[in-house]
Design a protein that fits this description.
By secondary structure, the chain is of the alpha/beta class. Helix content is 42%, strand content 18%. The protein has an eight-stranded parallel barrel, surrounded by four helices. The chain binds 2-phosphoglycolic acid (PGA). 2-phosphoglycolic acid (PGA) binds at residues 10, 175, 180-181, 216-219, 237-241.
Length: 255
């Protein structure tokens, strides 16, 4: 089976609403052309106010829109939060959860992230579950145990409803905290170890899920080609570099 390689653009809170619309207006046709590149799947994750306009603009294309987060609740008195079902209603088909910036700045725990996963499964949105160790955990040789802990509660939920979830797509984004926005890339050896482990672990936990393992953290046109060679890796979650269309295009096209 020839699976598509994912290019997921995480625009974080870098671009204002106006800048996001400008970026899409200026590069609309080029984005469409890029989405036709062989074996390529593009998912754009703008800030929340731009979900609806972008989903509308790319409705007839293979480009999909992802949310950067969702509430861990279904509905109710949760001021400022956005439910998974509303994200779906405005056209998002993917959603990032567990990003290290949310773990760090919003105090999200593995339990909260698992609740968000439940909401996404109920809303029929493809989850992108982010995991990654800190620099200290890495230095202490605790990478795999950290990843296992971060995944445990999500995996318990997946295991519990595995029959219902048969053939469901779930993405796991390995993003070492020390590589995000730092310009530092893990060695190929480190990535091979992590992705081999992730591949085995995910299949052992739930063999009937369609797992996609991706990497994020300082991906640029300069290192994309090298990282693409890692076994079991089927995509990138790209922050800073994805805001420049020309750079994003080079990341997609390099082989
Ligand atoms: P970066 O961000 O590519 O800017 O390092 C990646 C991410 O946080 O998803």
């Amino acid at each position: 089976m020839n699976r598509k390689f994912f290019y997921i653009a995480n625009w974080k809170m870098y671009a204002t609403f106006t800048q996001t619309i400008d970026l899409i207006t200026k590069n609309h046709d080029d984005f469409l052309k890029l989405s036709q590149h062989p074996n390529t799947k593009i998912v754009l994750c703008p800030s929340a106010l731009a979900y609806y306009p972008l989903a509308t603009v790319f409705k007839e294309s293979t480009i999909e829109i992802g949310a950067q987060d969702c509430s861990d609740h279904h509905q109710g008195a949760f001021t400022g939060q956005i439910s998974a079902s509303d994200i779906k209603a405005v056209g998002c088909t993917y959603c990032i959860i567990g990003h290290s910036e949310r773990r760090r700045f919003n105090g999200e725990t593995n339990a909260t992230i698992a609740q968000k996963l439940t909401q996404l499964i109920d809303a029929n949105i493809t989850p992108i579950i982010c995991i990654g160790e800190t620099e200290e955990q890495n230095k202490q040789g605790k990478t795999l145990t950290t990843l296992e802990q971060q995944l445990a509660e999500c995996f318990a939920i997946i295991k519990k409803s595995e029959t219902k979830l048969e053939n469901t797509s779930i993405l796991i984004a390995y993003e070492p905290v020390w590589a995000i926005g730092s310009g530092i890339i893990p060695s190929n050896e480190h990535l091979e170890t992590v992705f081999a482990w992730l591949s085995q672990h995910t299949l052992k936990v739930a063999p009937s899920i369609v797992w996609t393992l991706i990497y994020g953290g300082s991906v640029t046109e300069l290192n994309a080609q090298q990282i693409k060679k890692i076994n079991h890796l089927e995509g990138f979650l790209i922050g800073g570099a994805s805001l420049d269309f020309q750079e994003f295009e080079k990341i997609v096209k390099c082989n």
